Amino acid sequence: MILSVLSSPALVSGLMVARAKNPVHSVLFPIPVFRDTSGLLLLLGLDFSAMIFPVVHIGAIAVSFLFVVMMFHIQIAETHEEVLRYLPVSGIIGLILWWEMFFILDNETIPLLPTHRNTTSLRYTVHAGKVRSWTNLETLGNLLYTYYSVWFLVPSPILLVAMIGAIVLTMHRTTKVKRQDVFRRNAIDSRRTIMRRTTDPLTPPRRPCLR
Amino acid sequence: MYIAVPAEILGIILPLLLGVAFLVLAERKVMAFVQRRKGPDVVGSFGLLQPLADGLKLILKEPISPSSANFFLFRMAPVATFMLSLVAWAVVPFDYGMVLSDLNIGLLYLFAISSLGVYGIIIAGWSSNSKYAFLGALRSAAQMVSYEVSIGLILITVLICVGSCNLSEIVMAQKQIWFGIPLFPVLVMFFISCLAETNRAPFDLPEAEAELVAGYNVEYSSMGSALSFLGEYANMILMSGSCTSLSSGGWSPILDLPISKKIPGSIRFSIKVILFSFLYIWVRAAFPRYRYDQSMGSGRKVFLPLSLARVVPVSGVSVTFQWLP
Question: Is residue B26 located within the same domain as residue B144?
């Protein structure tokens, strides 16, 4: 029952992302999707991934989308809403993603998939290894930093390039801004910058000519 | 089972709400005493019924909603803020075994809830349909997000010393010595990042009264503003609670004296939380406000590298001397 309580709002919100007229609503609808997906991950027993979902997806990705979308002018964005002209391309992309979904589906839960009819369903379990219970965090860490360490390290230059790309794309001519050098400012000595001249009080100061 | 869990939940939420109400009073009185005047002391003796009077006023006030504000979002935003600050109390341990939900990833849960807290603010600011509210909300959100990174790195530092995200486990690992003593700079940085995370002084330009007229809250009148306010103070107590759990030995006795063992663990925890909340108020009274670009600059250019610079030696030393738990 919890499965349906979680997954149906996810599906409906996913649909509403595309259907909502207001762009801000359309960016706020992924939040129930992520929340319900996180709940589904909890049901699967993947607690670490379930907690990473709010942090990364809701707290960072959807917030970034929200920042951009909130800058739109709502009335103009709402009137230009002819959805059906997107149908050919979006339909093709939707079908491709639907087809890709079948690559990830676990074959054991769909035992009658045509690819795996010849294997048996016997599995040999080593019970001695199950005595100590590892948390999700420990298992991920054990694999991620040892066997898959290259896969762990490679995303970091990718992220670096993405960050630099974002900065380069949006940087104006901020290099030409006149800025004060704080150290130079603090090092100014009054004895070297201000000249003192004594004026002679006996000769009258020159007045400008009135004619 | 169906009675115990709601009873536990009520047992956390009701004292928390009372605590928030009296924290508002405490803040006014402490700031007043710092400024050499007496705070509110007319309503009850020593002003103790002041929160009641405040609550009554806010309930009886006329709720105003701006004409072209998005109705549903406008109403739900303070509710979301308040709900998130209450929900995070599910993992905080008050005593040995006295925790609503002993999650093995409790630390990550706290972090997730503080990430979600940004939403209440953004939605409140945007749905008010007012440029000032929106600006205040965006600035507030950007500041919260920046200091959250620093908080995350400091949580990692504590996590390395403990080896588990379970908050009860973290508290029990501080039996020998509290983490705040060898890792005292980490505690200071965590406290300052918590100040910025909850938009409290000296990082409260987005909601300062003189500058931006309560920032994202400007269009909310009675219960909306009350809920946002309560959410902010509940967040403050939550951050104090996580400060004590993570670095001051949540319910561990102060020294191993038999006297301090007689006081129940939850009372010890409460005393430490009160001390941290008092520190929050003291800092607000004592320091001038950071300008917004200064606070963002210090968040990204000072606290982020500093917290990163604490993760590396702690993990390096732990691995070198085999002190990993």
Answer: no
